[in-house]
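Quick start: load a record and inspect it. Here is Universal stress protein:
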Amino acid sequence: MRTYLVVVDETPEAEVALRFAARRAAKTGGAVQILALIPPTEFVQWGGVQATIEEEARQRAEALVMGAAGTLMQESGIRPTITVKQGDAVTLVRRTLDENPDIAALVLGAAATGAPGPLVAHFAGTDAGSLHCPIMVIPGSLDRDAVDRLS
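Running the structure step on this input writes:
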């Protein structure tokens, strides 16, 4: 099945990318996989404090993904696959792509202003020629109507 992998975070461009992927999946009979990334935590000398910090980060990521999944199901009727991982973002996205040959496209949102984020810069640059699927960089400046027209 054609699966669109969308990396989500708390940015507006991630919401735009998710909407685009959901609409493409609905039109092509595909699926959506949502990937939320938790950055690696700095080493804290006291293990209990570090465990609490990591657990809070995981809970925030899971709440974000559940909200995004609910919106996706409500608007497109698609039930996404949800994955939450902790570590280096580029490494985790690459590993997810390598482990899932059904992924038909990596969908990333680009900020409306400023330099591209690290995932867009890496996958549209350094790693672009070695991926097994296309990368779709969705401009964060698109409004809902523009996304609906383009998808």
